[in-house]
Amino acid sequence: MIIPPYLKSGDKVGIVSTAKRTKSEEIVDGIQLLKSWNLVPVIGKHTFNEYHFFAGTDQERTEDLQNMLDDNAIKAIIFTKGGYGTMKIIDALDFTNFKKNPKWIVGYSDITVLHNHIHNFNIETLHAVMLQGISKCTPESKTSLKRALFGETLTYEIGKNESNKNTESVVEGILVGGNLSILYALIGSNSDIDTSNKILFFEDIDEYLYHLDRMLIALKRSGKLSNLKAILVGGMIDIKDSTLEYGKTANEIIVEETNSFDYPIYFGFPSGHQEDNRALILGREIKISSNDNTIKIEFKN
């Protein structure tokens, strides 16, 4: 995998909105954080536009991201927020210059579209808190974002979860994934990815339990769950029951739909739609090990 150049003091960072509309006051704390790291935020022309649900028309959102992809002075692109909209513009983007001059793509949720699309270019991306979430995220989230962007060692230790499965052995593999709903929506498209022999991470928010089951079955039927090294489950936030009770929890559904496979499943990693949203380098090889009390996740340099 290709590692984009790590950031250094004075680097310019592009700020764009490719999904839900954003107000300038929502990202004040995020902009100040970047400046405190001696980075120079460059805000896209249409970042605060409004077109119904979206941050501008498809053309405007495409133009902003395309400009940042093509500008070699921009060393990373950090998105304001997710929601929905990146999938509407992905096929209009030209990645020719980006592939020659890669830079860090930073975001999560709807930005999973870009994470997966770019993974197919063998370029790493950064699943991490976006600017709108900086004001509420934990100090650990901010620190992990900085460490990842500036090329410092990234290691996590989390407590064991009672839902974990087959976690006795050490696992190594390339980390891929993102938001489960987006992974499901990308199946069969040119932004779909090969998960074979990789570690799959996913998280989600505000879905019904039966939706979760349906998405996992779709991933399984399309071969995405068949040859994994492991699954790393992030925050499954506000997963709702329907009027007619589904009868299983989110974790139980995940275990049930993977019960024909013997790879490890690690639950409860602090990443996703929550205040504790730690950075993950997608496309990077990681090592997962465990002892009696903790799970250790190490990103290889």
Poorly predicted residue ranges: none
Distance, first to last CA: 12 Å
> Which CATH first-tier class of the largest domain would you pick?
Alpha Beta
Q: Quick one: biggest sheet?
A: 7 strands, mixed
The CATH architecture of the largest domain would be 3-Layer(bba) Sandwich
Bulk shape: globular
Count of individual beta strands: 13
Tally the helices: what do you get?
8
Domain LD-carboxypeptidase N-terminal: 13-128
Keywords: Carboxypeptidase, Hydrolase, Protease, Serine protease
Family: Belongs to the peptidase S66 family.
Domain LD-carboxypeptidase C-terminal: 172-288
Question: Could you give a short description of this structure?
Answer:
This protein is an alpha/beta fold and 301 residues long. It has helices at residues 28-36, 58-70, 96-100, 112-119, 139-149, 180-185, 209-221, 250-257, and strands at residues 12-16, 40-43, 74-79, 104-107, 125-127, 155-159, 171-179, 198-205, 230-237, 265-266, 280-282, 285-290, 294-299.
